[in-house]
Amino acid sequence: QSFGVATSFTYRAYDQPNLVFAGTLAFTPDKIPSVLAFANDSIEAGHGHAACMLGFAVAPPPISVPILLCSIFFNGPEDQARAFFRPVLEIEPLFNTAAMIPYSSVNALANEAAAHGGRKSTKGGAFAAPTRTAFLQTLFQHFSDFITDVPDAQRSLLLMEFFSPDKVCEIDNRATAFANRDYYNNILAIPQWGDEANDGKCRQWARDVSSMVGKEMQAAKIDGRIKPEMDGVGTYGNYE
Asked: Can you give the pTM of this predicted structure?
C-alpha cells in the first residue's frame, strides 16, 4: 500500500488533555441484531467523536462460550457519551468496563486479548455498512464452529471496526501511495492457539473469514447496498 524512498517523516500531533469514555461490553449472541443496528447507525451519528468495534470471543470461565463484544469510544463528557451509547448500554450486557479514562490508555484496552506468547496469525478484509444482521450471524456461527473444532484456539478473536471514514477520504484514493481510502471499514480475524498441529486449521479459518467478507462486499455492490464505484484496495496492511 505504501512504497517509495522516505528521506524524512513528520508526525502531526494534537494535544488531548481531557478524559474519554471508553471500554468493552459483552453480550449473548441473541443480542446481535440490536447491537449491530446501533453499530451501523453510529458511523454517521458519531460525527467523528464516537466509534465502536464489534467482535467475537470466548468468554472466560465459568461461561466459556462464544460471545459478542462491543468496544466503545466517545471523545467528550461522560453524560453525552452515556446518552449516545444508551441503546447498547440498556441491552443488559454480561459485563461493562466503560468509564472515563485517559486517551493514552485507549490503545491498551485490547492488550489482554492478545497477550504475549502462543501462536498467532492475522488476516484482514473490508466491509461496508450497513452490515446485514444475517451476515454477522453467519460470521458468529463460523467462529463458534471453529472454536468447537479447534478447542486449542479459544483465545481467537474476530473484530469489526465501525469508524467514520470521512476524514481519511478527504484525500483522493489515488493521490498518495496509501490506496485504502474509501467508505468501508476493516475486519480482522486473529486465530490464537498453542499446538503446532493446529497451524493449518487456524490459518485457514482466518483466510475463510476474509473470503466470506470479500464475497459479501461484492454482493453488496451488485445489489446496491453500497456504492459500486468504490476503488480502495480493501486491504489494511497492518492486518495482513
From this structure: 0.90
For 1-5, 21-25, 233-237, which range has the lowest pLDDT when averaged over its residues? 1-5
Tens of pLDDT, residue by residue over 226-235, are 766 667 777 7
pLDDT, average across residues 213-240: 77
DSSP secondary structure string, the chain? Answer: ---S--S----------S-EEEEEEEE-GGGHHHHHHHHHHHHHHTTTSEEEEEEEEEPPTTT-SEEEEEEEEESS-HHHHHHHTHHHHTS--SEE--EEE-GGGGGGTTGGGG-SSSEE--EEEEE-SSPPHHHHHHHHHHHHHHHHH-GGGTT-EEEEEE---TTGGGS-TTSSS----SS-EEEEEE-EES-GGGHHHHHHHHHHHHHHHHHHHHHHHHTTSS-TT--S----GGG-
Scan for cell 478473536, then name that residue: 157
